[in-house]
Amino acid sequence: MNVGRRLIPAAAVAGATALGLVALSACSPAGGSTGTKNGKLDVVASFYPMEYLAKEIGGKHVSVSALTKPGTEPHDLELTPQQTARLGEAGMILYLKGLQPAVDEAVGQAEVKNTVDAAGLTRLEHHGTSVGHGHEHGHGEEPHGGEGDAADPHIWLDPVKYAQVAEGVGKALEKADPDHAADYRKNTEQLVGKLDGLDKEFRNGLKKRSTDTFITTHAAFGYLAERYGLDQEAIAGLSPESEPSPARIRELHGIAGKDKVNTVFFEAIANKRTAKSLARDARLKTDVLDPLEGITAQSQGHNYLEVMQANLRNLQKALRTP
After folding, report:
1. Cys-Cys with 164: which of 106, 122, 154, 173 at CB 3.0–4.6 Å?
2. One domain for residues 132 and 106
3. For residues 275 and 266, what is the distance between their CA atoms, to the nearest angstrom?
């Protein structure tokens, strides 16, 4: 989500990358890396949603490590030289281009044959502070890659789009490790089935509601809103670190009254101050809507599916579904 976020200075990224390349040349075994670890395909994932796919689909045949540690804001990640070296030794890299500038730079330098960009496996859209159900997309999007710096990268929060990415990751694993292709196909089918089930849970769980509108810290839930006919109103656009203007706060007060909103959502690892201030001033409740950028002790679940189901329950309460 480099969109609207604090960007890492280009010089710093370049410096870190250069140091990483030095570390890579020093740490790599003679003749280059085999791309395996303990006899398994060595997969490096950029952050949690990519790590989850790699583990679920790869199963016992892969060794998966994530560049972004739990509780760390993935968007502002700065790679250590050792992490950059790890990228160059990987058998597969799984990342989401446009989300983490430092990762994008390092992946380009690593030149790993089996590099998978999740942004190229589904359609990215452009979302601002507001997105409504009048713009919902159907299920038959044609996949294509990133559409510029303003494209919203939060594709994993839409189970349908995430399933499309899962299918692409499964095919990439089959190509990288053909000896275990049958297992990867089976695991992919099982995961896509779970994501289809999650999609049905959201569709059925949000059918009857008193309002379509929810207010959240930043515009992470545009795809989810479009998929299920909701209206997302974000306090600070795509950047949770940015401060909303007084005009935006006044606008949200009016929206809350007009659309009978009773809850302001915040996320566990981001700044809650503005969301809680708005809720207090407008006499609204607060609750968590997790953008699922990592699993921590504060997460309302132990994995992607559990946290998404918690998000559904929290939305149901806020939208006053039966």
Report:
1. 122
2. no
3. 6
